[in-house]
């Protein structure tokens, strides 16, 4: 049985004190060797199937965050069993607390502006639906990124140059992932938590509205112009349920949504250097049609 403690004094797994980043070798000594290692494009995910634990690493050597899976998921890196250990936050057993006090869930969200609980230099995120907690993520706290937000931050400005006209919203989102989040060629980098604070026309409650796409957020990306001069920067698109674009579109995204499926390859004609497409949000015919025009398409 795995027991995890996070308190004002330290972070411990089975009474071994740890601090982030944690070497994979340290976790192997505490948790046993992980059953599987999934090397993704932007990170490496270690899976302890019997323990219900995931470890996320950017370089494949040190773990930046640990996820306790309280609900089984269907991703290729998901654990085969749910976490059945105990997790204590400041000496309170959170997993039991959640099962018996679901109506008091909001009490777990006192913390920084993003909703995480903070103790010293470690933050704890609760991935929850309206009834129960699905996962707990523990990672180093780097401070709230939300500061005073300039009034024009998310005001979309008209381009003084030619822009790409999209016919398929899902395709556009894949391009935004590449240009905004991966290549950082489009600014500002959209941050959902920052946007809802900035937005003044009404109050957006992410805890209540975050289970479905929020109209104002979706509309922002629909209206966002993409300069045509950036089209040659796109050599591939890579869809993954954990992409920043999807996590910023939907607060409680789980990876199975169909809101952003690519339904047409018409927009591919605008990207002459596009040679590869890794898909998870797309219709079957899109996969086949991309291959038909010489683009190396594969399912994630």
Could you please describe the fold and organization of this structure?
It is a single chain. This protein is an alpha+beta fold. The protein has two domains: 3-140, Yope Regulator, Chain: A, CATH 3.30.1460; 169-299, no CATH class. 21% of the residues lie in helices and 23% in strands. The protein contains eight helices and 17 strands. The protein has helices at residues 24-31, 94-100, 169-182, 192-198, 206-209, 215-223, 244-249, 284-292, and strands spanning 3-6, 11-13, 16-18, 22-23, 36-39, 44-48, 53-57, 62-63, 65-69, 86-89, 92-93, 117-119, 122-128, 133-140, 236-238, 276-279, 296-299. The strands form four sheets. It has a seven-stranded antiparallel beta sheet, covered by helices on one side. Strands 3-2-1-10-11 form a five-stranded mixed beta sheet. It has a three-stranded parallel beta sheet with strand order 15-16-17. Strand 5 (36-39) and strand 6 form a beta hairpin. It is globular. The two termini are 33 Å apart.
Blueprint of the fold:
Blueprint (H helix, E strand, L loop, with lengths): L2 E4 L4 E3 L2 E3 L3 E2 H8 L4 E4 L4 E5 L4 E5 L4 E2 L1 E5 L16 E4 L2 E2 H7 L16 E3 L2 E7 L4 E8 L28 H14 L9 H7 L7 H4 L5 H9 L12 E3 L5 H6 L26 E4 L4 H9 L3 E4 L1
Parallel strand pairs: 1-10, 15-16, 16-17
Antiparallel strand pairs: 1-2, 2-3, 4-8, 5-6, 6-7, 7-9, 9-14, 10-11, 12-13, 13-14
